[in-house]
Write a structure and sequence with these properties.
With about 260 residues, the protein is mostly beta strands. It folds into two domains: about 1-105, no CATH class; about 110-265, no CATH class. Helix content is about 10%, strand content about 30%. The chain contains two helices and 16 strands. It has helices at about 145-150, 205-225, and strands spanning about 20, 30-35, 40-45, 50-55, 75-80, 90-95, 100, 110, 115-120, 135-145, 170-175, 190, 190-195, 200, 240-250, 255-260. Strands 1-7-6-5-2-3-4 form a seven-stranded antiparallel beta sheet, with no helix packed on it. Strand 2 (about 30-35) and strand 3 form a beta hairpin.
Length: about 260
Amino acid sequence: MATPQDPNQSNVFDPPRLYIDDDGVFPPGTVVTRSDDHDLQTTLVKQQDGTYHADDSTEPAILGFPFEDTHIYIGAIATIFDPVTGALVAEYVKQPNGTWKLASTTDTAAVTDGGLPVDILPQADYSAPKPPDVPVIKYGGMPLSKILQDKGASVGDAECPAYDGGVVGSPKLSLRLLLQNITYKSAQFTARTEKKGLVRVITRGKLAMYIAEQLRDTLTEAEQQGKCLCQADGTRVDFDRLVLMDVAFHSKASIQPRIGVIRAE
């Protein structure tokens, strides 16, 4: 479980953290949707003073409805928007343990930094009891084939550490893919070294390269066995259409990438 964040902390959603303990960090304008039962939907909007009011279009309209009363409603969805542009920033889902989990791993559609529409490959969600408080590592839809071609050099901030080595101290990490119809035998790789007090963490470029190599080799092996990677509707996917959206820590020693598929024209 992540440690509670300061409501004034500006980088909680840049990039969005995988887990949020304290809903106090949700900015004004955050929309929370919950369900009293299968028929009634109540939409709450966070105000400047930190309280939540029912949206005027909600039936019944309950003005000043206290958000604290929703803490038992597991599955509530908090949608966060950019206060300037109005663009969607992130969605979080209330978990049974009271934390809020980033819903990006279950998204079915997204766009690359270049504006190309992509569909997200279906994956099982790797879960662990105590994920570290580490921001999601964003790659913005970088093509895996391009990553392989230039060995990760085209990745933004390719030579920068992929994550905070002071927060995640595990010297080795395990890659979790959990793709449908494709078996991946997770193997550990060295991601952090420490010598004479100097900590070095795998760079963004090298991490992307490792993921691209592992996925390429896994798909090659699967094809030799007569299997193929497919989208949710069963459509076959070629490696050249795959892009790396982001990578999240699901435990102190496990990461799971979110892979997109560039839509066919």
